[in-house]
Amino acid sequence: MKKVAVEFKRSWSRYNPGEVAGFDEAQADELVKAGHAVRAGKQPMPKMEKLTIAVGDIRETDAFKDAMSEIQGEWQKLEERANQVEAEEKRLEGVRAQLDLQIDASDPGDFCVVDAKDSGDPDNQPDTAAGEPEAKRSGKGGLPKQGR
């Protein structure tokens, strides 16, 4: 139901002169006919009606088709890259197998790890003075006192 704004010219019910209020159209007409009010200069905005728009299937739009073709192109690139990675894995497996065969066929004495501390040569011993400082000892030869 449509509301109509009226401005009161004299007291009516709880309204005083100069006040504006909204009423149903029939009651507003009665107040104007009785001389209690006049229609206000500013009327309320009518309520908006629901607007429904029928949209077709979104899959039929050009934007959707463009997006799908872009997705398919990227998917194809990913599949190609996955095939390249798989081929590289197979190649590396073959290289590893060849290296394993070479290691198995070789003399075990050909491969050894020698550490400087295992060599027995005093010139090749690790330099402990440069690597770690020695612990300070008290003058009496005992351990340092704690908690002073």
UniProtKB/TrEMBL annotation:
Region (Disordered): 107-148
Alphabetic keyword roster: Coiled coil
Coiled coil: 68-102
Protein name: Uncharacterized protein
Organism expressing this protein natively: Paracoccus onchidii
Lineage: Bacteria, Pseudomonadati, Pseudomonadota, Alphaproteobacteria, Rhodobacterales
